[in-house]
């Protein structure tokens, strides 16, 4: 392990994990990084990803990273394959850096940003002296993230990789047809809002069309109401379509859980039907 680094231009380090905050895992990783870069600043993107849920982690990262300043380093650990043959990686995509397991966690980032450099983290000089088979977040990813934040070139951290070798999640992209878009529920947030995989850029006039409906074929359930926001006079029990803060079409119930009330799970098919003007 290298000695502490002094740098006046240390980048912010953002953390995303499924560790929760009850145990000491997050604090220990921050301690490791502070020992390498004492002046580092840490931002918790989230530590409440459901355990081992790589897709949920990928979604949280993919909808959040762009709001961080360029140069930020994202330390991401949702790693059900820890200790296996999955590769530990670091890469630059767009203006940001990412460190974590090659297991699909970076799916949405890789889909949106040009990748400049990718390395497999094979240079043990930048790891802790003893690497646990069960906590590589502490022993590999945290020290590497700290060194990147201090300005260490990626090329010094390990073997170069091609972007084509990185693992992607097996997701079906929305299928756009003449009068419909076939998609699925890709995320359910803390409030029970159902987020589809349909971004508004696939139907920019979503609110202007005279008729838009969302069908759940598996349940013969149709959502017909659209709202830009919720007014106090609205029916609180009526599910409605809206556009979430990241631009994806979703289903919500004011002061209630659409997921629970409609009995919809992540991965269920959702078809957006619309008139052709």
UniProtKB/TrEMBL annotation:
The keyword Oxidoreductase does not apply. Transmembrane segments: none annotated. Keywords: S-adenosyl-L-methionine. It comes from the Bacteria. Residues 13-158 form the S-adenosyl-l-methionine hydroxide adenosyltransferase N-terminal domain. Belongs to the SAM hydrolase / SAM-dependent halogenase family. This is SAM-dependent chlorinase/fluorinase. It comes from Dictyobacter vulcani.
């Amino acid at each position: 392990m290298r000695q502490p680094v002094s740098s006046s231009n240390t980048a912010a380090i953002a953390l995303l994990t499924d560790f929760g905050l009850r145990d000491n895992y997050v604090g220990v990783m921050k301690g490791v990084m502070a020992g390498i870069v004492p002046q580092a600043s840490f931002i918790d993107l989230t530590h409440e990803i459901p355990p081992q849920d790589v897709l949920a982690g990928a979604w949280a990262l993919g909808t959040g990273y762009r709001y961080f300043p360029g140069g930020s380093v994202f330390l991401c650990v949702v790693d059900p394959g820890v200790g296996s043959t999955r590769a530990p990686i670091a890469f630059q995509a767009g203006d940001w850096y990412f460190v974590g397991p090659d297991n699909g966690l970076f799916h949405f980032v890789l889909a949106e940003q040009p990748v400049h450099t990718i390395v497999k983290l094979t240079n043990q000089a930048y790891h802790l002296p003893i690497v646990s088979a069960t906590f590589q977040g502490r022993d590999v990813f945290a020290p590497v993230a700290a060194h990147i934040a201090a300005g260490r070139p990626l090329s010094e951290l390990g073997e170069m990789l091609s972007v084509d070798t990185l693992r992607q999640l097996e997701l079906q992209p929305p299928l756009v047809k003449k009068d419909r878009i076939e998609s699925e529920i890709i995320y359910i947030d803390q409030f029970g809002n159902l987020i589809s995989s349909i971004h508004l850029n696939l139907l920019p006039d979503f609110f202007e069309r005279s008729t838009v409906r969302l069908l759940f074929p598996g349940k013969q359930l149709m959502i017909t109401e659209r709202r830009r926001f919720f007014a106090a006079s609205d029916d609180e029990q009526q599910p409605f379509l809206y556009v979430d803060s990241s631009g994806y079409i979703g289903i919500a119930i004011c002061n209630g859980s659409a997921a629970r009330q409609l009995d919809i799970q992540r991965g269920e098919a959702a078809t957006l039907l619309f008139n052709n003007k």
